Amino acid sequence: MSIFRIAHLSDPHLPPPAGAFGWRDLPSKRLLSRIAWRRKHKEHQPDVLAALVADIKAYAPDHIAITGDLTNFASTVEVEAARQWLSCLGPSDRVTLSPGNHDALVGATGPERFLAWAAWLGDDGEPAFPRLRVREGVAIINLCSAIPTAPHLATGRLGESQLARLEALLADPAHSDLFRVVLIHHPPIPGAVSKRKSLDDQGALRAILARQGVDLVLHGHAHEGLVATTPGPNGAAIPVLGVPSASALGRGKHPAARWHAIEITHEGAGAASVRVIARGLDPETGLATELGRYVLV
Questions:
Q1: Nearest-5° angle of CA 175, CA 90, CA 215?
Q2: Strand, coil or helix: what is 135?
Q3: Domain 2-296 - what CATH class?
Q4: DSSP string covering 276-296, please?
Q5: Could you read off the pLDDT of 25-68 as tens digits, one per residue?
Q6: Rounded to 5°, angle at Cα 43 from 144 and 6
Q7: What are the backbone dihedrals phi and psi of residue 168, each rounded to the nearest 5 degrees, phi first?
Q8: For the whole model, what pTM was predicted?
Q9: 131, 98 in Cβ contact below 8 A?
Q10: Of 44 and 218, which is predicted with more confidence?
Q11: CA neighbours within 13 Å on the CB side: how many for 207?
Q12: Which residue has the higher pLDDT, 259 or 272?
């Protein structure tokens, strides 16, 4: 029997460093995000994130999965600050990042925009998503739903080429015996977020998952702890799990910071079992504590 442990966190919204917003950004969508950040920045606290990260390091996971929104304006200085933060989490081959909509707020639309974070996106040198990492019987399939959008929209899109590559990857028999985990920022299920924040081609993604199957989908974006399913092959249900923001105080409309320990147990040649342990900050003490646990069937 072997256990592979993944720590899932999301939407840390790292505080913008000096120079993250300038006068050249006034005509862009960054202005709207700056206005929103002035309203929301008290909810996202670096001390909260630091406490959560310390708790994750104490747990000593085999891998850390981050489902996006490290930045707020996607500015160059923010991207560099996020790169430095990522480097402090642990070796890059043990941390996988799926970019979020705030990480692609404006600018280029292609995967090359994330080259500064290349070491945390996947093992191969290809810039295109999906990116694949295989660790101890687990395939971590990293998708990118982050695209620039019009003002007041936070939608995501995978696009036809990424979807085609995903189907080919999932159909490859070389990965059929692995426990397959998909990382994506936007929830791939209807109703998890409003339409202006949703994944445009979620139906196409769900159709691929229904044909080819995976074992687990992890997402962020909703700033909520969500448990749902999407249909897999032969009537199976694929678990879809979301986690709240990793830096949230929990004094607004969303819950306080939380991360999930996902323990994948392989028992011989049989199917793997999955236990999820939710950990977050106790509002009374400010200390990290277990909030609950459950087993995925």
A1: 25
A2: strand
A3: alpha beta
A4: EEEEEE-TTT--EEEEEEEEE
A5: 444 555 555 555 556 667 889 999 999 999 999 999 999 999 99
A6: 45
A7: -65, -40
A8: 0.93
A9: no
A10: 218
A11: 7
A12: 259
